[in-house]
Amino acid sequence: MNAVADHSSLTPISPLRHDWRLAEVEALFELPFMDLLFRAQQVHRAWHAPNRIQMSTLLSIKTGGCPEDCGYCPQSVHYDTGVAREETLPVATVVEAARRAKEAGATRFCMGAAFRSPKKKDIERVGEMVREVRALGLETCATLGMLAPEQARELKDAGLDYYNHNIDSSEDYYKRIISTRTYQHRLDTLEAVRDAGLKVCSGGIVGMGETRTDRAGMLVTLANLPEHPQSVPVNQLVRVQGTPLAEGEGVDSFEFIRTIAVARLLMPAAQVRLSAGREQMSDETQALAFMAGANSIFYGEKLLTTGNPDVERDRSLLARLKIEPETAAQTQERQVGARQAPAAGCC
Ligand code: SAM
Ligand code: DTB
Ligand code: SF4
Q: From its phi and psi, is residue 172 left (phi > 0), alpha (psi between -120 and 50) or beta?
């Protein structure tokens, strides 16, 4: 029996499974490209509005000087990348950036910090930011490194909606990219975030020299968590001079799209975010990513320290594809009905 026949039982309205086996997921990656995209589209249309994407804007609220040695990251003190260490931004500066992001059309504001883990004063400061950004009518997300359960609860109490913490790769490959903390540390933080009642944003990076088995392993880990992350960022590695991953082969764009499609099949209800790397992608590759089930992007000229497509390019791309940005009201509607069942009337 070949891989296609093996998976012919995968129905469009797939249930939320948490028992994926690596071999099964590798077989999905092996499907003919068009078959894989067809299945991903079916699942996507069953669970989501097909021509709508959610837009988040990122801001680095504390840049550079990070003690961790993540091999991809321009903000690590271990590498000479030209990114200087800065202090945490004042609350007013962050709120002003959030206001501009809302005006430009974003519905979620993500605050990123180059911390291994935040200190007490950092949690307090981010709590203030969250309260004020929320008051503007934006969803909030923070990514501050490892959290203790108590810290996750404090952020929840401040009104934080999402916490981003990526597993980045498979457990095996992770050890080759980061030595200053373990995969288990990442999983422990995800547990603390989940237990605090925050929404989980967790994904990883494609193109670090990992194998297809590693990409499948990463998605299996995410899908087999006690709850699927509500948001799954799939980043294409942005190569930054000075980091250990500055040079390398990268990944074929069809393989990148396959990773998005498999993420969509494994985690049907999640928002799959086409994250870092869009500036280097053609419009056609991005359109394929949306077809494969990506329904969220980072919107605005900058990610944390590297570039993102400018707003005009994104507006033009979405207009040409007739894809609408999700409004705040649509976000709320989606969240009310979201996790119980696929959208009625689709497919
Ligand atoms: N320090 C926190 C942490 O590591 O969790 C939060 C910020 S960190 C920059 C957030 C995520 O950005 C990383 O987990 C990684 O997935 C992604 N990232 C960092 N540098 C990247 C790069 N050069 N290309 C693609 N993604 C990158
Ligand atoms: C995520 O998965 N990607 C974003 C966000 N979560 C925090 C970060 C991408 C960073 C790319 C490199 C940079 O701009 O420094
Ligand atoms: Fe620090 Fe996060 Fe960059 Fe790793 S990814 S070096 S933890 S800022």
A: alpha
| pTM exceeding the 0.90 threshold for the entire prediction | yes
DSSP string, 141-154: EEE-S---HHHHHH
Q: Is 27 exposed, middle or buried (0-12, 13-18, 19+ CB in 10 A)?
A: middle
Measure the CA–CA gap between 343 and 346, rounded to whole angstroms: 6
Tell me, yes or no, if 110 is annotated catalytic.
yes
- Please check the confidence at residue 273 and state whether its pLDDT lies above 50: yes
d(Cα 104, Cα 229) in Å, to the nearest integer? 27
In degrees, rounded to 5, the angle at the alpha carbon of residue 296 between the alpha carbons of residues 294 and 302 is: 120
- Look at residue 43 and tell me whether its pLDDT is greater than 80: yes
Average pLDDT, the chain: 93
What are the pocket residues of ligand 2 if the criterion is a CB atom closer than 6 Å to any ligand atom?
58, 74, 112, 143, 164, 166, 203, 233, 235, 238, 275-276, 303-306
Structure confidence by residue, pLDDT tens digits, 275-313:
999 999 999 999 999 999 999 999 999 999 999 999 999
